[in-house]
Amino acid sequence: MSSSKNVLAVISGPSGVGKGTVIKRMFELEPTLCESISCTTRSPREGEKDGREYFFVSKQRFEEMIQGGELLEYSAHFENYYGTPRAFVEEKLKTGDVILEIDVNGALSVKKSHPSAVLIMIVPPSLEELSRRLRSRGTESEEKIAVRTARAQFELSKRDKYDYCVVNDEVDRAAERILDIIRKHKEVL
Hints:
Blueprint: E1 8-12, H1 19-29, E2 34-35, E3 38-40, E4 54-56, H2 59-67, E5 71-77, E6 80-85, H3 86-93, E7 98-101, H4 104-113, E8 118-123, H5 127-137, H6 142-156, E9 164-167, H7 171-188
Parallel strand pairs: 1-7, 1-8, 2-7, 3-4, 8-9
Antiparallel strand pairs: 3-6, 5-6
Helix pairs in contact: 1-7, 5-6
């Protein structure tokens, strides 16, 4: 019998595809999963706690982490840094499978620095369905929906760089498909 190794599953997908809902369902179905926590230089929002939503660090500390190779990936958004701490992920992988929800560019960076990571893109049944989902939220202008749809087209154009694409046509089914992928990878590692 082969020993199983824990999996770093990197999950991406366009805004509105239902990543958060699918991942939440995965944790309900498989409570032993661990969610990766990112570092950021932005200030905590009300109700956020260091080490729960993010690890909040100074810009100087973040730049030291970059220089020291302490991040699997990082990016800058709106004058703040965001990144995935290597030591945190490696520590969590000792005890279980780790889920990292991140954008396409970050996912491709993680794959370079952690080649055994499994990249999974959650995709909509169609772009029309994605636009419908964004509209049904009722939180975005048509202009913002157009921007998000264009971004989705860019992200979906990178799907061939992912190990798997899972269609979120139904939340439970998508969550189960991803859990099956993780189980399959545990067997072959």
